[in-house]
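Severity: low
Component: inverse-folding endpoint
Summary: output formatting inconsistent between runs
Steps to reproduce: submit the following structure tokens with default settings.
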């Protein structure tokens, strides 16, 4: 008999689930319905946490602070109704250990206000439960336990796969169940040889942290770990793979930029010193350092690719202008791109005030202005090209204006992204690039998202004088708030009344703000209350901003369109409605719109009186106005995945984002990526072909590769 051809491991991984021994058709059906069709698909559903069910507690229930795990039989169930509230009621199930020798008191499982649990749990069922046992007035109880219903014929599996071990808990969707996914992962892994998948990382050094690890082992241990230590190491190994892929991309990008051929832009300092002298203040030390770092990059022959990173109000604009002047001194053109038209107009106003007196021609170019041709009037009478271009991304589309572009400054990078630079390079323009962001990002995160950039940080505020007092208050205090705002306005100040974005929908979002506008118009009668939201055209928005800036409107109801960069120093009050809907970083950005002038400022975060979570979470806003501290708190609470999600729009959230806080791991990924690209700069070797797609951005996310 001829020997069977060897089946490649990769093919085994692609085996459909219905050929896997040990899985019932019902289990397979529930998975296939959700698109989980192969063993590879199941393994890609990484558990989001594990429960230590290694020790199943024996025969008695003991109250304890530590959760414990039990195999129990349901003896009785019932719903305890309370009060007169319709639909309310607690579901309770009284259980005893299945062990025939079980002793002592039974345990009462309680699900508060969830009477519908009666549909899930019934007398006579066996359950695996996991939770804390409390002694409540002599009765033993467990509230909202993790539980699984065990069906009789799978009893053996129940205690070996679902319990009696460190048990994986998966994120479920649709028809998926914990038991179903767990069974599929278990039997799927059992059907595979020891090495069932190609490695992404080059083989680890024989000594060192990851000696003996490979992708197959990492996946096995991530699902069914042999110990808690091994689980931790598996997660780190898989995270390293993922970080490695991102590092391949940023290191490759960085090398591309360096190879794109730059030029040296050296100024004689003539314009710069006139500019600095005309400013009504002197630069902070941090600003001066950043100006110097940037000038150093510009003077070098290599192209600049730098991030200017500074909290709201740290004074990034002045630094940007200083750098633009250096470009102009060197005989080149400079451009400043803003994420919104409001911001572009604001930058243009500053540029007219500060740069035109130095003899520079400044052109403002935005989508709407260009359409009616009025952008052109900004040219000098003799048709001279502008020295400085300011606009939204529309700016890049007008090749006739772009002439000898030496420096591009991109404000608020997280809305613009690296794509802009790529677009310029495609057009054959390789200017120095400075991106600015006010999102305070801890160092390890900058290494990952902005790993292709050098970083300058403005870590110092210009004015220590004015303070912002922040309070979290129940929304029932609106009348008092209105009274306070009216006093401030009568004293000559102005205020913002901010409404949240609802479910990312501009329509609903505008609706909430419009309602708020009616309410505040009544509360503040007869004052003129302005309204600004995302559904207005750019010109309408700018017109409203103008009335606010000029002081004709003293209170402005707005959605988060004012989040970035808006600078009206006379505004001293900000009320944020439904503040519980915002992330901390976003609240910090919003609050940065006040406290910009000489007057003390006041920010009130309105929350639902009963929303304890929001009150507790927002408390830090009362304590500090340090963006980095707030960002760290945000990181701790939401994990970098979410914090990052905002900053790196377009990229899939990382699966092991929480491990990004581990600097060592990120640096290791970087070092390995550098080595790979040293050996094979175009990733053309057969073992690198797969990496190539992601590193060269033919593929947006590493998702499929990591399956
Ligand atoms: P951001 O970093 O948030 O973009 P801006 O550039 O808008 O900050 O600056 C905030 C405010 O601080 C502006 O009104 C600006 O004129 C002022 N400012 C900038 N630098 C200084 C400084 N060194 N001393 C005093 N005020 C400054
Ligand atoms: Mg700014």
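Observed output (run 2 of 3):
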């Amino acid at each position: 008999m001829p020997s069977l051809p060897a089946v490649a491991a990769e093919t085994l991984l692609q085996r459909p689930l219905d050929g896997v021994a040990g899985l019932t058709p019902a289990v397979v059906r529930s998975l296939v319905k959700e698109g989980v069709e192969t063993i590879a698909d199941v393994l890609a559903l990484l558990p989001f946490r594990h429960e230590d069910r290694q020790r199943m507690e024996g025969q008695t229930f003991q109250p304890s602070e530590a959760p414990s795990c039990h195999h129990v039989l349901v003896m009785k169930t019932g719903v305890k109704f309370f009060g007169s509230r319709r639909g309310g009621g607690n579901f309770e199930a009284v259980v005893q250990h299945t062990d025939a020798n079980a002793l002592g008191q039974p345990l009462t499982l309680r699900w508060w206000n969830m009477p519908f649990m009666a549909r899930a749990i019934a007398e006579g069922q066996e359950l695996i439960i996991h939770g804390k046992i409390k002694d409540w007035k002599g009765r033993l109880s467990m509230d909202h336990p993790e539980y699984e219903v065990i069906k009789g014929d799978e009893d053996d599996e129940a205690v070996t796969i679902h319990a009696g071990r460190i048990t994986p808990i998966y994120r479920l969707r649709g028809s998926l169940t914990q038991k179903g996914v767990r069974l599929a992962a278990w039997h799927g892994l059992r059907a595979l040889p020891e090495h069932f998948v190609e490695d992404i990382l080059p083989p680890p050094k024989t000594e060192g942290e990851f000696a003996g690890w490979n992708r197959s082992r990492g996946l096995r241990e991530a699902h069914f770990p042999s110990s808690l230590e091994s689980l931790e190491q598996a997660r780190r190994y898989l995270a390293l793979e993922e970080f490695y892929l991102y590092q391949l991309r940023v290191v490759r990008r960085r090398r591309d930029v360096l190879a794109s051929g730059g030029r040296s832009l050296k100024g004689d300092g003539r314009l710069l010193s006139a500019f600095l002298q005309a400013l009504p203040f002197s630069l902070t030390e941090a600003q001066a350092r950043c100006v110097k770092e940037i000038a150093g990059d510009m003077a070098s022959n290599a192209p600049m690719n730098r991030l200017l990173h500074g909290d709201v109000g740290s004074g990034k604009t002045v630094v940007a202008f200083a750098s633009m002047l250096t470009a102009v001194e060197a005989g080149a053109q400079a451009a400043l791109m803003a994420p919104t038209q409001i911001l572009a107009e604001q930058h243009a106003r500053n540029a007219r005030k500060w740069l035109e007196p130095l003899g520079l021609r400044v052109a403002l170019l935005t989508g709407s202005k260009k359409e009616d041709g009025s952008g052109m009037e900004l040219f000098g009478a003799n048709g001279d090209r502008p020295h400085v271009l300011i606009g939204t991304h529309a700016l890049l589309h007008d090749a006739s204006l772009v002439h000898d572009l030496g420096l591009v400054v991109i404000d608020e990078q997280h809305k613009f992204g690296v794509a802009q630079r790529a677009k310029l390079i495609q057009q054959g323009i390789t200017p120095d690039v400075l991106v600015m962001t006010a999102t305070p990002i801890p160092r390890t995160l900058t290494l990952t998202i902005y790993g292709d950039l050098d970083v300058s940080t403005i870590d110092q505020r210009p004015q220590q004088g004015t303070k912002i007092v922040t309070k979290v208050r129940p929304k029932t205090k609106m009348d008092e708030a209105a009274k306070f705002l009216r006093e401030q306005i009568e004293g000559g100040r102005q205020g913002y009344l901010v409404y949240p974005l609802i479910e990312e929908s501009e329509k609903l979002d505008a609706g909430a703000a419009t309602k708020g506008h009616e309410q505040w118009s009544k509360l503040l009668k007869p004052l003129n209350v302005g309204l600004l939201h995302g559904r207005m055209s750019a010109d309408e928005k700018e017109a409203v901003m103008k009335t606010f800036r000029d002081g004709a409107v003293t209170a402005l109801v707005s959605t988060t369109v004012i989040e970035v960069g808006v600078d009206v120093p006379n505004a001293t009050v900000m009320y944020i409605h439904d503040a519980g809907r915002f992330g901390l970083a976003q609240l910090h950005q919003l609050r940065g719109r006040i406290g910009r002038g000489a007057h003390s400022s006041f920010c009130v975060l309105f929350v639902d009186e009963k929303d304890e979570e929001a009150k507790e979470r927002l408390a830090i806003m009362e304590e500090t106005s340090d963006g980095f501290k707030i960002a760290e708190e945000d990181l701790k609470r939401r994990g970098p995945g979410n914090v990052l999600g905002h900053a790196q729009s377009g990229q899939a959230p990382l699966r092991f984002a929480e491990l990004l806080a581990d600097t060592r791991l990120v640096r290791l990924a970087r070092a390995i990526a550098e080595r790979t690209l040293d050996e094979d700069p175009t990733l053309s070797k057969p073992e690198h072909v797969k990496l190539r797609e992601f590193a060269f951005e033919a593929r947006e996310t590493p998702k499929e590769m990591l399956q």
